[in-house]
Amino acid sequence: FGLLESGSVSAKNEVNIMAKNVADVIFGGISYWMLGYGFSFGEGPYTNSFCGIGKFFIDPDDSVMGEEFSRFVFQSSFATTATTIVSGAVAERMKYLAYIIFSFFNTFVFCFPAHWVWSKHGWLNKMGVVDVAGDGPVHLVGGATALITALMIKPRAKRFTPEDDHHMGSPTGALLGLFILWWGWLAFNCGSTYGISGGKWKIASRAAATTLMASSAGGVVGFAYSYIVNKKRFHIPQIINGVLAGLVSITATCAVTGVKESLVIGFVGGVLVMLSDSLLVKLHIDDPVSAVPVHGVGGVWGLLAAGLFTHKDTITQHFASRHGLIKGGDIYLLGVQALAVVSITAWTIVSSGIILQILDMTMGLRMTAEEEEIGADFVEHNIQQFLTALPQKCDHILVTSLHTRYNSDMMAAAISKYIGDNPAFNDTDDPVTQQTSTTAGSNTLFENSASNGRPVQSVSDGHQVKHRNKWKNRVRFSSIRIRASHHSTKGPMPNMSLGGLSKKDFLQRRFSDILSYSSRDTMASTHSDSGF
Questions:
Q1: Where does the sequence pass through the membrane (predicted)?
Q2: Over the range 268-298, which residues count as b (16 or more CB within 10 Å of their CB) and which as e?
Q3: pLDDT in tens, 50-76
């Protein structure tokens, strides 16, 4: 997943997306060990159809150690995968610290559906639901969470505009990630039989064959769709999504269906994913790695397909107690599968939405516009290769950012407020460039901005002061640098008289001067400095 996602985002964010996958394993793994496994597979006296109770902070005794630890390790990979799916949907714009906290708590979104489906006490399991390897608890949970997160955090800057410049940073890396994920999927699907004895090796081999054929059928759709839509060109994202669509679609019924049926399941899954991906673009829902179509839509289809194409498990009598509708069964199994889709989707949207809303209200989910432009690799991890390779990038970023703030309603209101609250203001004052008034002037401008204008970027009320002060300090230090640089090369910056201008126009003219000095003199020599 990490390679596939990092190859699908721009070069300035590829390390960050890999680091998010690391966070999934670390923090999601810890929370799953602490409580998640117990909520999924606990068998204490208070265990019920909704959740397990017991086996928290799991450390079993020798008599059951092998079975419990093997299940824990296998299921923890499922738990962290459900979160990793989300990292792709919010790539290039979500704060890393917010994501770390989210990855810790998102485990609990997974563990309850896992109990419903796989525990003998779960209410869906008692009804006979078929989900061999996690279309519901893993992929549908991940896809639904990805959708609600993408809606809350909104599209990347410039996305869905004529200036859209978002491209895959490494198509080769993404394809390499697909290959590794492809073979890893065999381990997921075959390993979900939990053994080789008692005929389990037979259905494990069937799971391998159906997984390969379904992914191939989905891949055919990806190739064909790209060839038709892109005027005889084969776009890498659509090839990748076609293969993944087949893999997700077969996951629920991989061990209890036939090879011919798997081709149909993978093909239909590929078509649904291609169409839903196009729909998201039309709706302006930004999903850089197509996590919602692949895992959300693919997971829904995989669960419903199990209600149609499942063979009754006559080998282990564990994975399917009846035939699907097309294989001679009645509509009951399809109804159970549809109920699983509705219940898991509803649970995921509500529970993940609550977690995300709390994070957004307390610390904020999204990076600032300046941080997003620079890239998360530099902002979050101090990796400067991207900026070093493009030395003019930081100049452009700062000047563009200053222009945005300068032309904003917040800045206009701040200037008006400054003049209105300072009747002693005279022709020689310069609230930005004069040493005696740089700090006081810029402070006054920004301290008065909250009640007189709206912030450029949407920030919760509790964080307006922090956000304003952060930008205030950036402008103050930048103006000091500009003044110092100009002084060393050209002497003191000139004091301009009003020259017939209104005081507001005069201040705006002085801000324009600052921007021109910033672009020409200062930032070329300071863009790599930590102070920006």
A1: 96-116, 136-153, 174-197, 203-227, 239-258, 292-311, 331-359
A2: bbbbbbbebbeebeeeebbbbbbbbbbbbbb
A3: 999 999 999 999 888 988 999 999 999
Q: What region does 193 belong to: left with phi over 0, alpha with psi -120 to 50, or beta?
A: alpha
- Lookup: tokens for 369: 């516009």
Rounded to an integer, the average pLDDT of 98-114 is: 96
DSSP letter (8 states) at residue 461 = G
Q: How distant, in Å, are the alpha carbons of 32, 37, 40 from that of 28?
A: 6, 11, 14
Residue 332 CA, distance from chain mean position = 36
At 500, the amino acid letter reads: G
In terms of pTM, does the model score above 0.90?
no
3-state helix, strand, coil in the chain (%, to 5): 65, 0, 30
User: In the beta sheet, which residues pair with residue 366?
Assistant: 94
Give the closest residue to 147 by CA, choosing from 270, 2, 280: 280
Secondary structure class of 159 (helix, strand, coil): coil
Note the pLDDT of residue 314. 87
How does 321-331 read in b/e, with b if 16+ C-beta sit within 10 Å?
ebbbbebebee
Is residue 313 predicted with pLDDT exceeding 50?
yes
Distance of CA 507 to the CA centre of its chain: 41
